[in-house]
């Protein structure tokens, strides 16, 4: 980003000069690309939307673009990349635990919390594609989980626009206010991510303890009740050689 900042600025200015429909289409395609497992640049698109269109319009563009991108990525991964994603998840104890919890009673909560963690957006879409969550519930949980960081990123985008005005005016008070805004935004971001990681880890630990108890007692976790943290996928992963402890 530092090396290509001039080209990036020119690209943003070009995108800002497009009419409404063309800009919407451009950002929608961009969000579809970054939603795929190999995609990158989700946060950059968030900040760019706030920079070009302001806080309110930038938020609307983000919500719509991410919703379309997540839906396309979920369907594509489920139909075309499910076998690859399953093999990849089974090689990671952490991801296997996340899948088990997602398919339990706390699934929607875990999806929302995972969206607040720094795990790449496209990789999360690949992991969630192999779960048994319905598409409407998955999109709803994803939208709720992504909302806090979208608000912060859109606000950061507007402060970058403010930074250009500050540099042009060479105002000391403007530099101070801008720096304070950046510090507060980054602090809020770290707090949100930290709280999400704590809650997500707690849900995973609860699932692992339930699975460990069921293995010791020789019974399988219940999949019919609403209070269990894990689901039938727990047995499948355990049978595949995953180290539960």
UniProtKB/TrEMBL annotation:
Lineage per the UniProt record: Eukaryota, Metazoa, Chordata, Craniata, Vertebrata
Keywords in alphabetical order: Membrane, Transmembrane, Transmembrane helix
Record-linked InterPro entries: TVP38/TMEM64, VTT_dom
Transmembrane segments: 12-45, 51-76, 172-193
Location of the VTT domain: 43-158
Protein name, UniProt field: TMM64 protein
Organism listed in the record: Nothocercus julius
Any one GO BP annotation for this protein: regulation of cytosolic calcium ion concentration
Superkingdom of origin: Eukaryota
GO CC, alphabetical: endoplasmic reticulum
């Amino acid at each position: 980003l530092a090396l290509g900042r001039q080209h990036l600025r020119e690209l943003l200015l070009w995108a800002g000069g497009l009419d409404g429909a063309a800009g919407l289409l451009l950002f929608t395609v961009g969000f579809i690309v970054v939603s795929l497992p190999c995609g990158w640049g989700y946060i950059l698109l968030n900040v760019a939307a706030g920079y070009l269109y302001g806080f309110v319009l930038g938020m609307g563009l983000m919500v719509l673009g991410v919703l379309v991108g997540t839906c396309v990525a979920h369907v594509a991964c489920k139909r075309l990349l499910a076998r690859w994603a399953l093999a990849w998840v089974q090689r990671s104890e952490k991801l296997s635990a996340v899948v088990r919890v997602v398919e339990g009673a706390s699934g929607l909560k875990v999806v929302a919390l995972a969206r607040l963690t720094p795990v790449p957006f496209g990789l999360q879409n690949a992991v969630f594609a192999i779960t048994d969550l319905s598409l409407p519930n998955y999109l709803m949980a994803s939208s709720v989980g992504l909302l806090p960081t979208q608000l912060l990123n859109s606000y950061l985008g507007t402060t970058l626009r403010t930074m250009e005005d500050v540099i042009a005016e060479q105002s000391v008070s403007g530099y101070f206010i801008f720096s304070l805004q950046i510090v507060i935004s980054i602090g809020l971001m770290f707090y949100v991510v930290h709280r999400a990681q704590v809650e997500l880890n707690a849900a995973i630990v609860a699932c692992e303890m339930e699975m460990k108890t069921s293995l010791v007692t020789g019974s399988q976790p219940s999949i019919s009740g609403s209070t269990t943290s894990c689901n039938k996928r727990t047995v499948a992963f355990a049978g595949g050689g995953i180290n539960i402890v």
